[in-house]
Specification:
The chain is of the alpha/beta class. Helices cover 22% and strands 25% of the residues. The strands form 3 sheets. It has a 7-stranded mixed β-sheet with strand order 7-8-9-10-11-18-19, with helices on one face. A 6-stranded mixed β-sheet has the order 1-2-3-4-5-6, with no helix packed on it. The chain has a 6-stranded parallel β-sheet with strand order 14-13-15-12-16-17. Helix 4 links the parallel strand 13 and strand 14.
Length: 332
């Protein structure tokens, strides 16, 4: 049997035809298997969702009370038709998972988004051996090489203190789900000073705490004194240019993202400071993962998919790009 029989690209997204289910479908389907709760992967309208239990409160919050979920533990095997499915840690955000599909002795793995760097706010990435692999490639170029997270947190703290000495607030844009919690955990090793948060960020912070993740003290902006001075505020990037941000006066602005590896990106977006921090695998993480799975066939999705597939083919691997709607690391 060809290994590609298990994964097929359709107008609704990635389908497993023998099991008649979709992975992170783009449109409503009867049966969806979700890799994680970011909005480009978890969409409303499907009849049934299979997902990891660690993601329960976040997915219920994002997809609503009417969504019908079936929760699974990491590594638990369950049947969808004749296909055996299991979910394995992806190290991307809390509750993120890779999808392992086994049928008639052949195994494929769909990674969803993943990273190989340590992250105390979620379970570490697990290499899952397979015959075929669908890997993301958001940062699939050699230039993307992530610094240690603690080093980035130290840079953020130094920037915050410098702005404080000048009487300025520090407004830092980062994803409300995953990035903010990871950064908070790293900052908590340096300081126990309270950090202010946008409501969208704080809602997710509380969910992480409810699920047992230890994070340093935070305060909603609504709990702040009328005039803040020298504070660090974490907020979704889209809020930095909004009327909401004007309350902080002449605040210094920063952005935490893998895209900040390219200095021109920071200048074009008008941030005062960029911090290189991503919840996706860098070039080395992508290559080591692909090698360690020992996959004989690799399909590469979103980001630099054509570039990474071309590199892998040049190394003698059967690899090709796979067009999908997933966004990777954006500004949302």
């Amino acid at each position: 049997m060809s290994v590609s029989v298990l994964v097929k690209l359709t107008p609704r997204g990635l389908q497993c035809p023998p099991g008649d289910f979709y992975i992170d479908p783009w449109e409503p389907v009867d049966c969806a298997v979700l890799t994680h709760a970011h909005s480009d992967h978890a969409r409303t309208g499907s009849r049934v969702y299979h997902a990891v239990r660690d993601s329960q409160p976040i997915l219920e919050h994002r997809l609503g009370d009417e969504a019908h979920f079936i929760w699974h533990e990491y590594g638990e095997r369950f049947a969808l038709g004749p296909v055996t499915v299991s979910l394995h840690p992806a190290g991307h955000i809390l509750g993120s998972a890779q999808v392992r599909i086994e049928y008639e002795g052949t195994v494929w793995v769909v990674t969803g988004d993943y990273k190989t760097q340590p992250d105390p706010t979620c379970r570490p990435f697990e290499v899952v051996p397979c015959d075929g692999l669908v890997t993301e490639a958001t940062f699939g170029l050699p230039i993307y090489d992530w610094p240690d997270t603690d080093e980035v947190a130290a840079e953020v703290y130094a920037w915050w203190q410098k702005n404080r000495a000048l009487g300025r607030n520090s407004l830092l844009g980062c994803y409300a789900l995953g990035k903010a919690q990871r950064l908070l955990a790293a900052l908590g090793k340096i300081s126990d000073e309270p950090i202010y948060t946008h409501t969208a960020t704080e809602n997710i912070v509380q969910m992480y705490r409810d699920l047992g993740v230890t994070l340093p003290p935070t305060l909603r902006v609504q709990e702040a004194p009328k005039k803040l001075s020298g504070a660090l505020i974490l907020a979704p990037p889209s809020s930095l240019g909004s009327p909401w941000a004007r309350r902080f006066g002449d605040a210094a602005t920063g952005f935490a993202s893998g895209w900040m590896q390219i200095r021109g990106n920071r200048r074009r977006r008008g941030y005062d400071k960029g911090f290189v921090l991503s919840d996706h695998a860098d070039w080395k993480g992508l290559l080591s993962t692909i090698e360690n799975t020992r996959a004989r066939k690799v399909l590469v999705t979103h980001g630099y998919s054509e570039e990474l597939a071309r590199y892998l083919a040049g190394q003698g691997l059967d690899a090709e790009p796979l067009a999908t709607h997933f966004q990777g690391e954006g500004d949302a």
